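ligand=calcium ion
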Amino acid sequence: MIPPQIFSQINDKCSEGLALALASDEDGAIMEFQWCNKAFSKITGYAASEAIGQRGTILIGADMEQGVHLYIIEKLMKWENFSTKTLNNRKNGETYWQRMSWTHLSDPETGDHWWLCSIIELEDDRPEPATIDAKDLAASDHESFVRAVEQVHLLEKENARLHQLARSVAKDANEDALTGLSNRRHFEVELKTWIENLKKHGTEFAVLYIDLDRFKFVNDSLGHDAGDRLLVSVADMLRDLTDTSDLVARLGGDEFVILKPLGDTALNISSLADEIVKRTQTPFTCDGKSAACSASVGVAIAKTKMDNPQQVVTDADEALYHAKSQGKGRWSFFTEEMHAKSIATKQLSSDLLLACERREFIPYFQPLIDATTGRISSAEMLVRWDHPTRGILAPAAFLETAANMGILKRIDEIIFASLSEALAYLDEANIDLPRVAVNVSAGRLADPSFIHDIRSSGIDPARLTIEILESVYLDRMGDVVRWTIDELDELGVTIALDDFGTGHASVSGLLEIRPDILKIDRHFIQPIFDEASATPLVESIISIGKGLGMLVVAEGVETEEHARLLREMGCDYLQGFYFGRPMSKEDLRAMLIETEGQFWPQQSADSESGNIRALGQAV
Ligand code: C2E
Ligand code: CA
Ligand code: CA
């Protein structure tokens, strides 16, 4: 630790100009001065208060040779230390000779990159320009004179080329190549400046975070060229709607952001957001084909009274998230309520991490009934969070957050580890429970240790069903997932395709996975008495499944009428509140003992005719 008294003497007494600049993580040529000593101010003409917060480019004077300029940018971009002797200008334009050296420093704790810039003023030691006396120029020297002039022209040309290159390097570093808007790097540097101005001068501003709603769809359906053209047209539209004092940037992909000074009224901000949403409502046309691609916008205001104005971009992002969740193609202002929600999500996230550590997840079980015999044929294991203060929580309270955090796999692992013991406990009821079904997330399916865990669990694979979501399969069909599915097959584990009908490409998913069991999603089952279209739909799903040699399960069977009709339609297994809600292993064991495994009367010739009657009444 250097004593501050010594440090202040570097500031006062050192004759070498010194400055420290914090560089952007990605590009060494982008930096902001954070400190300089007095000699630095004396040489460059920038007082500390003027230099701090400014970019490194203030040290590139108008009279600096373009070749040198390019050299400096290149070296900085590559994080290479260097030293150069060059003509430069002070703040007031006066030229002087200097030796400028740059040293790259990095902070191992924060990972921040810094530059130490040192400047020494040199005596003007340029050689006197050679004067050519025409009289002395003998005829024999004429040729070499012409050559020299040509040489000068060549050098000038080269100089101009370097000048152009230097300009384009500087521009490329800040510009998004496709749209010509500012890129993320430049946006980040600018945002810092806007926040500094907010703090210093109270210039409040709005952040509009824009995201296209169906960009992926346009890309997939019309091709990447069309996708690029769409981005360019959005960029043009944003340029058209904004003023020169606004900053418009493309952050990457289909995300754009606008910084706009607030001025006197927030009204111009909301009309800008309105206009962006309105203009993107018109379908985008490319080569005669068109696709709808609306935009959603999140708006937040950076205010002087904010403790942490950096937060404003996250706020706008939260507002955007809200706009999307409200149905897309709209905009939202960030509100404290959203903030509270995001704090709640953060709290939930950290609680979930703790819950994983403490293994607070427990299995619940819901019976599946054989439609013909009426006996229990399986039990689906459904996770519950045994929360220390909030009691038993259903997946809806935490699964989405866990998925966003990427810890679903961990939860599946914890739950699976408890299965063997739970099964042994259920078997003590002495009732035959042929199978248990386990839900697995995409992450777990792609986890090579999953198969190992099944093998070492001691559970008979023939007693195990793995339920996978068709969307999981379609999204994540990597080699490991394929391998896992093949291994499961090899082991003799039954594979069920869950929530059939809710994925995007149901039948192709079905053909790819070739599951043993097909579970029809409860949203198709529940309306079979109320909606005329539901019954034929369920009938055709059943016939697809049967045609492919699969067993069919109906989920969400809530009433006896449901159960009868579905049995009649040919479902092999039935699951739903009518037979039992998801329950603890203790409750299931008690129920097994009480019913002796018979959850519903066996189908008889009698009840069959009863069913037909029931069907007749229903239709
Ligand atoms: P799922 O796999 O489709 O599970 C069936 C869900 O439907 C369960 O909700 C169950 O309580 C509910 N359900 C069953 N019968 C009826 C009925 O007759 N009427 C109605 N309205 N609902 C019924 P739960 O337990 O809240 O689970 C929700 C979802 O969470 C599950 O849907 C599954 O996708 C996921 N999940 C549950 N446990 C796990 C797990 O251990 N791992 C993973 N990765 N996901 C799980
Ligand atoms: Ca399931
Ligand atoms: Ca399901």
